[in-house]
Design brief:
2 domains, homodimer, Arc Repressor Mutant, subunit A, DNA-binding, transcription (chains A, B)
DNA sequence: CGGCTATTTGAGAGAAATCAAGGATAGTGG
DNA sequence: CCACTATCCTTGATTTCTCTCAAATAGCCG
């Protein structure tokens, strides 16, 4: 509901975000072991896409004082399902996977979140998923209490956050269609197209998509087994739709074809 | 994010809501054909669970003036995907299914919404799903413009709405786990348990669950075919977990067993 | 009662999961 | 810099489910 902020700013500033990993904020000895530092909001590479973009310069200093930046290593968790939700996080760089587990270990990844996206949605005070880093990732840690204060004070931030939540709703709806009604080929094609749109780098006649996550994560995201993911990628490769230069990148050779495959047009 | 309103008020007042169908607001000739009438907020059966509960008595009259009530017949749509989103709706009674279609007609139902729930989430001004009545349903039609005004004026309403949206997020996450990782038996069991919790009527040693929707809707919600839904229900019947007095109701004979089946414990 | 639609049931095919190796890749330490 | 190991990915063979196709039955409304 509410105003319809144009959200298509998200494809910008992605390459800057990549670099952010290298120029991490200086750590101080006290917090070194936890890789937590004072937030360098002033120079944040994700600023323009994050909800913080709604903060005006005067309030920024105050905001920065309440916020911490945290480096998360691959596989490490930011928070877990059912844990008390004291923070909301904004992804600065890298990539986070949100996942839910069944008792017997089956897993469903519900989203991959990159720079500018917000994680930590809660209900009744508890997180609703596990959040883990897929690769080296920097997140910005905002205390819920502080956030609430800012949201009240800054309607633009409230709007921006609402917009993020509605985006998330839409993505989950798309995921539901994919999981419930698409074939493996359609699933993989959809996944690659979505990633290409989000962060692909397009050259003359091909698009390079980088996969920070492994086949396992892809399988648990698409509701498939790792073998089916592998076989399906191989199939698309043999068809000539794409190439696989390495385990962590895909070259889309025929975007239109892949898009058609994603929608089920044979 | 934000405050954690306790949302477990939703199991109350359901029986009242059922009656609402019978005592529909009086229609006036002018709007008769469209089944749209002035909203009878003062006597609304869904008031306590709806976001309108955040409105104080003074503002209620004003609110009622902006809002219309609409009767929707089974199969009729409230809105369609990609349609311009001029209204947000609050379900007063009956049941609405939200669904998304693929080009070739495959369908994924993403939610069933009952009294007190809000539908009409939009992004960039357009609805994200089709919304259709499953049975005779009354919805309350709130112009987005008016709603925005109220949200600004009444923080409690903003909070209530945010809470609804977060609930929806959680439900979609659960749906994703179900679609991606559960077996047909687990899917049906989960579906029935959820419905029992939401609106089941419990007697001594059994719970009656009413199914307003047909097998087709259930299939499209759970990512199955209608045949598999039918076979799975038959299987559970033969196991003795439940009985099927009619096509539109299920008697859960062993709740704990069904709960275990829902979680995959054999 | 008759016709329509919804649901159940059956038989068979097809597709993805499972089980089982084999190969590639990356990270470690010599 | 290279060998070594652990992990990740691919490929193959087989099994098991679920879908598909087809038909019968049951429920509902006029």
């Amino acid at each position: 509901m509410l105003g319809s902020l144009d959200t298509r700013i998200s494809s910008l500033a992605k390459s800057e975000a990549e670099d952010a990993r290298l120029e991490l904020p200086v750590t101080n000895p006290e917090t070194e072991r936890k890789n937590i530092t004072r937030a360098p909001c002033a120079t944040c590479s994700a600023h323009n896409e994050a909800i913080c973009s709604a903060i005006n310069d005067c309030d920024m200093d105050d905001f920065a004082r309440n916020v911490r930046t945290r480096l998360v290593k691959p596989g490490q968790s930011v928070y877990r399902e059912f844990e008390e939700a004291k923070f909301v996080f904004s992804v600065v760089s890298g990539e986070i996977r949100l996942a839910n587990l069944l008792d017997d270990g089956r897993r469903q990844v519900t989203a991959f979140k990159t720079a500018g996206e917000v994680i930590g949605a809660q209900q009744n005070g508890y997180y609703q998923s596990d959040a883990e880093a897929v690769c080296d990732t920097v997140v910005c840690q905002i205390p819920v209490k502080a956030l609430e204060t800012y949201l009240k004070k800054m309607p633009a931030m409230q709007t921006a956050l609402t917009e993020k939540v509605l985006e998330e709703l839409q993505e989950l709806r798309h995921l539901a269609i994919l999981l419930g009604r698409k074939t493996p080929v359609e699933k993989i094609a959809t996944f690659l197209i979505d990633r290409a749109e989000k962060s692909g780098s397009e050259t003359e006649n091909e698009i390079k998509v980088s996969l920070t996550m492994g086949r396992n994560d892809i399988a648990d995201f698409l509701g498939l087994t790792i073998e089916t993911v592998s076989r399906t990628i191989t199939k698309l490769k043999k068809m000539g739709v794409l190439e696989v230069p390495s385990n962590h990148s895909i070259l889309i050779k025929d975007r239109v074809w892949l898009e058609n495959l994603a929608e089920g047009e044979k």
